[in-house]
Fold this protein.
Amino acid sequence: MVQYRTQVKIIADVLVTARDMNTEGAGVGVTALVRKANMSYTRMSKLLSELVGSGLLLELDGEKISKYMISEKGKQFLVAYSSFQDFAQSFGLRL
């Protein structure tokens, strides 16, 4: 049986990618996020707007393209998500 990712798991994947791939502090481009999250560009664009609007990601305006980096609120989300994921797995549940 195919296991699909939940919306929360997709958000966590995008935030982890934005955190881990931002090695130089210049942010991560949309293309890298699309590839790592395995999503379409259209769906990623909508999700990025939501994440920026909720304060989980910061949008850095560049000359040609926008880049994204995780905010402090996004880091707090990942800590809470990880804790809840561990809690759920202790009961044999999958998020």
User: Anything to note?
Assistant: The chain has four helices and three strands. The domain at 7-87 is CATH 1.10.10.10 (Arc Repressor Mutant, subunit A). The beta strands are 28-29, 57-61, 66-70.
